[in-house]
Amino acid sequence: PAGSPNSLTKGHDILDIWFDSGISWSKALEGKQVADLYLEGVDQFTGWFQSSLMTSVGVRDIAPYKNIFVHGFAVDEHGKKMSKSLGNVIRPESIVKKYGTDVMRYWIAAHSTQHSLITVSDKLLEDGANNLVKIRATLKYLLGVIGSEKSIDESKLTHLDKFILHQLTEYLKNTKNFYENFQFNKVTALANNFVNTELSSGYLHLIKDRLYCGFDDEHQQLKGVLKECYDGLCQSLWPIIPFMIEESWNYHAETSFYQHNLSEKNYNFEESVRLINCALDVKKNICSSITNGNTL
What we know:
Layout: H1 17-22, H2 25-28, E1 35-41, H3 48-60, E2 65-71, E3 73-75, H4 92-99, H5 101-111, E4 117-119, H6 122-143, H7 159-180, H8 184-206, H9 208-213, H10 216-237, H11 242-250, H12 270-295
Parallel strand pairs: 1-2, 3-4
Helix pairs in contact: 4-5, 5-6, 5-8, 6-8, 7-8, 7-10, 7-12
């Protein structure tokens, strides 16, 4: 019967496994066509990456790929290779069931590209989950303030408003550059800093009086600024945590986020950045002096 050992026959059409996999470009690419990306583990520098390069250059005088993306191998918290015999395997299904898909995607983005050995542990996953809780809280807060349309009159913006819009522009430019260079760990680090430092403990804290007690015109300007921040966060984080972004966006618009084509942010307020940074330095020095005085 089909599938039984007696039905199996020995194959004679394999010359060499690395040669056969190395010429896969001959079926996937036509003529002088070059793939945008080859993706594999670090062990493939002397394997598939090399055999593909050698055969393509030998036959076509051109590399088969423009870029290669290399990831490491998963190990446990003690640096040991995961295996069933050791009982240290953490399966992706169990991660998704316990933490959710976005947490697993976030952990992969934050840890899988900068090291040859990728540690998988509950502590790292819980850290990722905690970071996403903070991001979710910020998105939720912004949703409670912004409207469906943004309306910004730059002549009515304060230096603090201009500061956060300038920082948002720089943040988005940097995240775009990191994405294009496959530096996903830097995207997550930059996003955490922008959400926790620039927004939550910075701008959102400092505008509370204007937001809750200001005049209508002030409130309208703030809604516009915060709408830009919300759009920017969704734009920069969707590739990594799409489920959270789509869930949040569902409370903001009738269509899914991926169907929206958001305009590029291009705010340049260097003078406001200089002034705000100067004010923050003064605050830091005062707080330091008070702390040192209390210590004495």
